[in-house]
Design a protein that fits this description.
single chain, mainly beta, ten-stranded antiparallel sheet, six-stranded antiparallel sheet, 3 helices, 29 strands, 5% helix, globular
Length: 324
């Protein structure tokens, strides 16, 4: 049985949509969403275990907790600007001469009433960026982002659709998520697996465009690797939907599998040494994708480009399973 209610986030003054599944009067899984705060999936619980770091974190700012949406670009943009089709786009400086983590992390999305089915419950949110919207001032191409969050037993799925609403301009963009995952047990018992093809060499966290074999990366996550001791903020290239990322929590005998469709060619791993969380971020493109594309690294950047009226869709999924 599936159900929902609408409450308030305990810290933020934000409306929170709570979805759940029940078995024999026991809550099997739960998900909580903040549509007015960037459509942030701020909680995902299975059998009473919370997989997402929910509370706003003063050290890195209240925008970043749960699962921020990174759009229309993930991560950093060099010098806060890029040029596309002859137009220079100037972005906000929020990272010492760079633009960091998109434009919509705390933007209000509209939402619809959740839909209950026999095997799931879903809620749709959307953001339409047109003249007059604050984001349009920095990225003046009309577009729309639709997200559908579907909760099933042991699983949350995010279906996305991006549409270029502009009548004349091509829309160059990227999409990603930035989930902050909790640690269960010790970091030595938490194994990260990112089966990418290559590591993207970087200088000051900005990729050079060079693709390096995984065994020469700061850590070779193509094999399950303990979180303990890792201090990564790295971009990975060549993700395969048949080989999803995963987190093995040996202390609780659970694996969190991060499935993604084929538009998600990149991933970022962020593992701050002293924090009780870490991030594994499925993305459609590289950090600084617009500038890499302009320098001729089209494959490496995987910048997505929609002609007027075109759309593209994709799917992400967090799935919990027992470790066999």
């Amino acid at each position: 049985m599936f159900g929902y209610n609408i409450a308030k986030h305990p810290v933020l003054d934000q409306k929170m949509i709570c979805l759940w599944s029940e078995e024999d009067h026991y809550r099997r899984s739960e998900a909580k969403l903040l549509p007015g705060f960037g459509s942030n999936l701020c909680s995902f619980m299975v059998e009473g275990l919370e997989y997402l770091h929910q509370a706003p974190m003063p050290v890195i700012g209240t925008k970043f907790f749960g699962t921020p949406i990174l759009y229309p670009f993930p991560n950093r943009v060099r010098n806060c600007r890029f040029t596309f089709d002859g137009t220079v786009y100037q972005l906000p400086d929020n990272d010492g001469g760079r633009s960091l983590h998109c434009l919509v992390a705390d933007t209000r999305f509209d939402y619809e009433i959740p839909v209950v089915k026999d095997d799931s419950i879903s809620v749709a949110t959307h953001l339409q960026i047109k003249p007059g919207h604050p984001v349009y001032e920095h990225f003046p191409i009309a577009n729309r982002l639709d997200l559908i969050y579907t909760l099933k037993n042991d699983c949350i799925e995010i279906d996305l659709k991006i549409t270029n609403l502009d009548e004349t301009k091509r829309f160059p963009f990227g999409f990603g998520i930035h989930p902050y995952f909790n640690v269960f047990g010790s970091k030595a018992e938490t194994l990260l697996h990112v089966p990418a093809k290559k590591w993207m060499e970087a200088i000051s966290l900005l990729p050079t465009g060079n693709l390096i074999d995984m065994e020469k990366a700061p850590a070779d996550l193509s094999n399950p690797t303990p979180l303990k001791g890792l201090t990564l903020d790295e971009v990975w290239f060549g993700m395969d939907p048949k080989k999803p990322q995963s987190i093995s929590y040996q202390a609780i005998n659970r694996k969190l599998v991060l499935k993604a469709s084929d538009i998600f060619t990149h991933s970022v791993t962020y593992t701050p040494l002293l924090e009780p969380f870490f991030c594994m971020e499925n993305q459609t493109n590289s950090t600084d994708c617009h500038n890499l594309y302009a320098r001729g690294f089209e494959k490496e950047s995987h910048l997505l480009i929609l002609n007027p009226g075109e759309s593209i869709s994709g799917t992400l999924q967090f799935f919990v399973e027992k470790i066999s």
